[in-house]
Amino acid sequence: EDMSLPKAERIKLDETDPKKVKLGNGTDVLGTRVRVFGRVHRERRQKEVMFITLRDGYGLMQVIFTGPLAKTYDALTLTRETSMEICGELREVPPGAHAPNNRELHADYFKIHKGWKAAGGDDAITNRVSKDTEHATLLDLRHLTLRGETASKVMIVRDAVEYAFNQVYKELRMRKVSPPALVQTQVEGGATLFKFDYYNEKAFLTQSSQLYLETCLPSMGDVYCIEKSFRAEKSLTRRHLAEYTHVEAELDFITFDDLLDHLELVICRVVEITMSDPTIAKHVMELNPEFKVPDRPFKRMKYSEAIKWLVEHGIPNEDGEEHKFGDDIAEAAERRMTDIINRPVFLTHFPVEIKAFYMQKDKDEPLVTESVDCLIPGVGEIVGGSMRMYDYDELMAAFEREKIDPAAYYWYTDQRKYGSSPHGGYGLGLERFLAWLCKQHTVRDCCLYPRYFGRCAP
Ligand code: 4AD
């Protein structure tokens, strides 16, 4: 009973007879009479017979209306997206015919309850979103495009991937924490900070939970979080959002090699767990038919080797010149390199000047850091990580070099005063991971309601 409606309009949905089933199920109840609920995904008529594909988020079911049922007013005026309650017998499809899960519902009763009808005419959903609708309009109508097959598959895979991360981290006995989103410190540079007024104090939306994760190590062991990060990115690229979901982890008493091994394991195990669910694997393979689980170990390449590789392959830097040591490897060059190598790459040992203040220097080569970007074909960087500077004086010098006032970071620098340790961690962009797994052109299609430069709605 829907308690939100006035008493007279509340709907009684009889759940006892016949049995209510979700649309993804049904193979176990073949030959019995069932009750289903869902929305009209597609409909077509063939002479006296009406075929309706019903959708409920768990699957699709073909429903057949014959005889008087197909001639009722509600059936004759049926619009897409209308919600329906239908009873009938579930049968295997006849040889040569096709339907989702090879079964169809032979309806003997249906009801479109009060308010369940979807708009028709000019307002019909098919007149608002179609294959020809512009991408910007589709984003304005995200609440409707989410009902489409591609968007809903990506969102369902996303749920499975997020769950898989939690599962892998539990297998590794790591603890989940939830750091604050409203902060007064920066992690990845002032240029992309969202600033706001916090009760008359200056504050930011967090760029990364890393610094907070580091403070958890002494009492909780290895930790992780799956939280939003915010970046005031001013460029419109296919892999930058203003608000994204950041999977971050921090590991205590490790070496840089341990960090790389861990990352490889997490990425592969997440794929393995995600693909072990047949429904999810089917969605992934429909979205990305060529997908295969990456081979381990990943290719490992130092930044200095990458610079050489880019020069040898004639791929220029952002100024159109030959790459030289110290250059940032820009998005376009990075992606071309990753696509040519065509397998995941750990790009390591970036120069100190182009990386964040907190990164540990390589002890044999102090010009470079113990840092890693994981690059994936089709997307480029999906992970950024490093060992953390754990010596107090060195960290204070790094703040000075970057002209950051360390006062607001007392809680972070204190970690180096009370039992420091060699530790490291990383952040993975969930939408980028999904763009790779689901072969989506842009990260904007890998989150529910994307936020990026110029868009904060719906
Ligand atoms: O390389 P980034 O900036 O690293 C950090 O924030 C570290 N503090 C994380 C850590 O070590 N705990 O970001 C990490 C990842 C990137 O590799 C990318 O996948 C994703 O976060 N990312 C974005 N995703 C979507 N839109 C953006 N604007 C992103 N910026 C970073």
From TrEMBL:
Segments forming a coiled coil: none
GO CC annotation: cytoplasm
Keyword Isomerase: no
Entry annotated with the keyword ATP-binding: yes
Top-level taxon of origin: Eukaryota
EC primary class: ligase
Catalytic reaction equation(s): tRNA(Asn) + L-asparagine + ATP = L-asparaginyl-tRNA(Asn) + AMP + diphosphate + H(+)
GO biological process: asparaginyl-tRNA aminoacylation
Domain Aminoacyl-transfer RNA synthetases class-II family profile, first and last residues per copy: 157-458
E.C. designation(s): 6.1.1.22
Keywords: Aminoacyl-tRNA synthetase, ATP-binding, Cytoplasm, Ligase, Nucleotide-binding, Protein biosynthesis
Gene Ontology molecular function: any one: nucleic acid binding
Compartments in which it is found: Cytoplasm
Family the UniProt entry places it in: Belongs to the class-II aminoacyl-tRNA synthetase family.
Official protein name in the record: asparagine--tRNA ligase
Lineage: Eukaryota, Fungi, Dikarya, Ascomycota, Pezizomycotina
